[in-house]
Specification:
InterPro entries: UreH-like_TM_dom. The protein contains twelve helices and no strands. By secondary structure, it is mostly helical. The radius of gyration is 18 Å and the shape is globular.
Length: 230
């Protein structure tokens, strides 16, 4: 796996953070304002709790990425590496284009994909609510780990990329870098909740992020087609 794939995952996570702020803003806000008053008064203590949430979330991404990478490696040994790798890479590119269109407010088709994860989330929801009143870092970490399973088209598109990597470790690394890319937005959202909620709803922010993610998707499609030709 080339370093450019990890860089792509990192940048998509950073730009897709606009989607994270919109979709997870309620979760982050609830976590922020659900903390004890003395914690809320200290930006430093609140930041440490937000780090615990997000480290748990990123770990869940890495574990899911490892699983999908393992699945991809199994598929590639069945029918040969190249055809399946190209197909998965093209699918990842198409999903990223669809996500970019969604972020920019031009097309909402990606929402249909998110519905596939609703059944799993409904099973996890009672466990997540159990940890909603966070009092220590361990509870925050567990909450974040469960939060990582929230249905999300952005995550699903990156999981296809992890599957196309064809390896357990590569899949985990792709999702790890993607999760690290989402970290700045959600950390800032947690500490400065009101300001970043307004920023995420700004049309120009969403359109710039959407256009950039869509371009990354087109690049993935081009790379897959070039791989097929060669």
């Amino acid at each position: 796996m080339s370093e450019s794939v990890l860089v792509t995952a990192l940048i998509v996570g950073l730009l897709g953070g606009v989607h994270c702020l919109g979709m997870c803003g309620g979760v982050v806000g609830a976590l922020t304002f659900g903390l004890k008053a003395d914690i809320q008064r200290s930006r430093f203590r609140m930041l440490k709790f937000q780090l615990a949430y997000n480290l748990g979330r990123i770990l869940s991404y890495a574990l899911i990425g490892a699983f999908f990478g393992f699945l991809g490696s199994g598929l590639m040994t069945l029918d040969g590496l190249l055809p399946i790798q190209v197909s998965l890479q093209m699918l990842a590119g198409l999903l990223m284009v669809a996500l970019g269109l969604y972020l920019g407010g031009w097309w909402n088709g990606i929402v249909v994909i998110e519905r596939f994860g609703q059944s799993l989330w409904e099973k996890l929801k009672p466990k997540v609510q159990k940890y909603s009143m966070v009092e220590n870092y361990t509870q925050a970490w567990i909450y974040g780990f469960l939060w990582g399973w929230l249905p999300c088209g952005l995550v699903y598109s990156m999981l296809i990329m992890a599957m196309s990597s064809g390896g357990l470790l590569d899949g985990a690394l792709i999702m790890l870098f993607f999760g690290l890319g989402t970290l700045p937005n959600l950390l800032l959202m947690g500490v400065f909740a009101f300001y970043f909620t307004r920023l995420a709803r700004a049309v120009w922010v969403r359109r710039i992020a959407g256009l950039t993610v869509a371009l990354f998707g087109l690049w993935e499609l081009y790379s897959a087609l070039a791989l097929r030709v060669n």
